[in-house]
Write a structure and sequence with these properties.
Radius of gyration: 18 Å
Strand order of the largest sheet: 2-1-3-4-5
Strand content: 15-25%
Bound molecules: calcium ion
Oligomer: single chain
Number of strands: 12
CATH class of the largest domain: Alpha Beta
Distance between the termini: 45 Å
Helix content: 40-55%
Order of helices and strands: EHEHEHEHEHEEEEHEHHEE
CATH architecture of the largest domain: 3-Layer(aba) Sandwich
Largest sheet: 5 strands, parallel
CATH superfamily of the largest domain: Response regulator
């Protein structure tokens, strides 16, 4: 059982999701406005928040940013009405961990929630420092440095980078990345992978420019996956 927050103004969706998650023994709070969401996250801790980006009172991305600031450890899954990459990217930049495009099936939502909550409670990884050029990835501390400077990454961006850097020069397939970074039983859209990868590239490039180092080169292998270039 987990403490979950649903922020959704569409009553039909909110009611269905609320009932579905309660039926799976989660402790669920459902609110319909951004203001109520911000009050809820001030009042009590949540393990996971489902956040509709199209809210009647406040900008959903702003709400996302404030939920992230109020509760650094809460998993945030944003809900978008349209499959628009711009909404998804802006939401992920604002601190969301994942997204779902409406309409979605309850089974898909439950699988995502299980995957996120299981990962959150996993035992700490054995200490390991991966080095690739100016890049250093500390898998135990979950810290990334480029040219000695810390690079702030979201949880899945970190997992993705650590997975690729573990095997420099080796192609890692999309299936393997989805299984290792998300969940072995993933059956949602793998666009999540591309969105996280582009956010990761952007952050590494910005960090490299800031310190005058080279960012690791993450190569897209069309239809196959990704490869981080060995030095
Ligand atoms: Ca809405």
């Amino acid at each position: 059982m987990a403490r979950l927050l649903i922020v959704e103004d569409d009553v039909a969706i909110g009611r269905a999701v609320h009932a579905g998650l309660q039926a799976h023994s989660h402790d669920v709070t459902w609110v319909q406005t951004g203001a109520e969401a911000l009050k809820a996250v001030r009042d009590e801790p949540f393990e996971l928040a489902l956040l509709d980006l199209g809210l009647p009172d406040l900008d959903g991305v702003d709400v996302c940013r404030q939920v992230r600031a109020a509760q650094p450890n809460c998993v945030i899954v944003i809900l978008t009405a349209r499959d628009e990459e711009i909404d998804v990217v802006v939401g992920l930049e604002a601190g969301a961990d994942d997204y779902l495009t409406k309409p979605f099936r309850l089974a898909e939502l439950l699988a995502r929630i299980r995957a996120h909550l299981r990962r959150g409670s996993a035992a700490p990884a054995p200490s390991r420092i991966l080095q690739l050029g100016a890049l250093q990835v500390d898998t135990a501390a979950r810290r990334v440095r480029l040219g000695g400077r810390e690079v702030a990454l979201r949880a899945k961006e970190f997992d993705l980078l650590a997975r690729l850097v573990a095997e420099p020069g080796t192609a890692v397939s999309r299936d393997v990345l989805m299984a290792d970074v998300w969940d072995e039983n993933w059956f949602g859209s793998t666009k999540t992978l591309d969105v996280h990868l582009s956010a990761l590239r952007r952050k590494l490039t910005a960090a490299a420019q800031a310190c005058g180092e080279r960012a690791p080169d993450i190569v897209t292998l069309r239809g196959v996956g990704y490869r981080v270039e060995a030095e």
